[in-house]
Amino acid sequence: MDGNSPAWVRGVSRVAVLTGAGISTDSGIPDYRGPSGVWTRDPELAEIFTRKRFVADPGVRRRYWRHIGGLYRADVQPNAAHRALAELEASGTAVRILTQNVDGLHQRAGSSPRKVLELHGTLATARCLRCGATEPTPQVLERVAAGADDPPCLKCGGTLQPAVVMFGQFLDSQVLSLAQNIARHSQLFLAVGTSLTVEPAAGLCAAAVECGATLVIVNRDPTPYDELATEIVREPIGTALPRICAALRSAAA
């Protein structure tokens, strides 16, 4: 995208944005599949995100809790890309965010919580797999820091799992249905910082295009959906997305 606003920003009042790990790397949260991603550097670490292994192996749970503790560091804050989407919403454009991330940074940046659909759940809450009791994850992590490296449910002693979708689990059917509906009714569908290799979330791109939306992909690496895109932006998300959002605001003014 050059310095002039592209034609696809004109006349857009409904924007759906699918975001992946790449949008949060400027906040200090590493992605998973990139050249320096968590799983690229340590392929075995992907096993701790598998539901079957998590449930069966206390050692996997201990490693999992240590890993996600990094997402709650004091220095993890929303970055320019998160803020740009919140500002676009505040300007009056109908923006719906469909995020594969579980870090809550979109909401912390100012996006309306009801307009952020967390496809893969949230790290904010942990749920007991036995009795269903919930506990705020930061509170669980305080117990981890105090020495409870496999923290049990406070009510029944069962296994706690953050309220995220792990490998081997299905997305919530109601959440997926709503996401598909949002994609199909969008005029512009932005896929930002996602490898588009995890289904069914990645398939939202095709659902949007099939219903007439313009697909724009903002990602460092090629994706399986590039051929459907009107434009592919390879530059850093922290500069590309604020410029796209500014162009949308300007075109709507």
From TrEMBL:
Q: Which PROSITE patterns match?
A: SIRTUIN
Domain of life the protein comes from: Bacteria
Which InterPro entries does the entry mention? DHS-like_NAD/FAD-binding_dom, NAD-dep_sirtuin_deacylases, Sirtuin, Sirtuin_cat_small_dom_sf, Ssirtuin_cat_dom
What are this entry's molecular-function GO terms? histone deacetylase activity, NAD-dependent; hydrolase activity; metal ion binding; NAD+ binding
Report which residue ranges the record marks as coiled coil: none
Query: Keywords in UniProt for this one?
Result: Hydrolase, Metal-binding, NAD, Transferase, Zinc
Which residues are listed for Zn(2+) binding in this entry?
C128, C131, C153, C156
* UniProt domain Deacetylase sirtuin-type: residue ranges: 1-251
EC number per UniProt: 2.3.1.286
The top EC class, named as a word, is transferase
Q: Does the keyword Methyltransferase apply?
A: no
Catalytic residues (positions): H120 (proton acceptor)
Q: Could you identify this protein by its name? A: protein acetyllysine N-acetyltransferase
Source organism phylogeny: Bacteria, Bacillati, Actinomycetota, Actinomycetes, Streptosporangiales
